[in-house]
């Protein structure tokens, strides 16, 4: 992934949402209109606050309607307060 051309300020983070699978485990395909908004993603940029406990490439879980959506270079991202991130997904 190339360097993101945006630097969040303060305690904000930029997250690239990860889309859900378009096929269920039983083999049924989910139409685009029935898909839910993503609730997890990958951190791609962090603000300059020392209180942020996240780093780039962390996989995180966030509230369904949190953050501000924006597009940059054809990709969709979310800009949100670090406190809106609910959990870090450990692998």
Automatic annotation (TrEMBL):
**Cited Pfam families:** Cpn10
Where does it localize? Cytoplasm
Q: Which family does the UniProt entry place this protein in? A: Belongs to the GroES chaperonin family.
Q: Name one GO cellular component term.
A: cytoplasm
- Record's protein name: Co-chaperonin GroES
Gene3D superfamilies given for it?
GroES chaperonin (2.30.33.40)
Among SMART domains, the record links this protein to: Cpn10
Q: Which GO terms describe its molecular function?
A: ATP binding; metal ion binding; protein folding chaperone; protein-folding chaperone binding; unfolded protein binding
Which UniProt keywords are present, listed alphabetically?
Chaperone, Cytoplasm
Q: Which NCBIfam families match?
A: PRK00364.2-2 (NF001531)
Q: Which InterPro entries match?
A: Chaperonin_GroES, Chaperonin_GroES_sf, GroES-like_sf
Signal peptide start and end residues: none
Q: How does it assemble?
A: Heptamer of 7 subunits arranged in a ring. Interacts with the chaperonin GroEL.
Chief location of this protein within or outside the cell: cytoplasm
Name of the gene this protein is made from:
groES
* Species this protein is from: Anaerolinea thermophila (strain DSM 14523 / JCM 11388 / NBRC 100420 / UNI-1)
Q: What does this protein do?
A: Together with the chaperonin GroEL, plays an essential role in assisting protein folding. The GroEL-GroES system forms a nano-cage that allows encapsulation of the non-native substrate proteins and provides a physical environment optimized to promote and accelerate protein folding. GroES binds to the apical surface of the GroEL ring, thereby capping the opening of the GroEL channel.
């Amino acid at each position: 992934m190339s360097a993101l051309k945006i630097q969040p300020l303060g305690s904000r983070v930029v997250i690239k949402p990860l889309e859900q699978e378009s096929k269920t485990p039983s083999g049924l395909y989910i139409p685009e209109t029935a898909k839910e908004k993503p609730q997890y993603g990958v951190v791609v940029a962090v603000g300059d606050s020392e209180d942020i406990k996240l780093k780039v490439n962390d996989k995180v879980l966030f509230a369904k309607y949190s953050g501000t959506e924006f597009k940059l270079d054809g990709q969709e991202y979310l800009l949100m307060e670090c406190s809106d991130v609910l959990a870090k997904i450990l692998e």
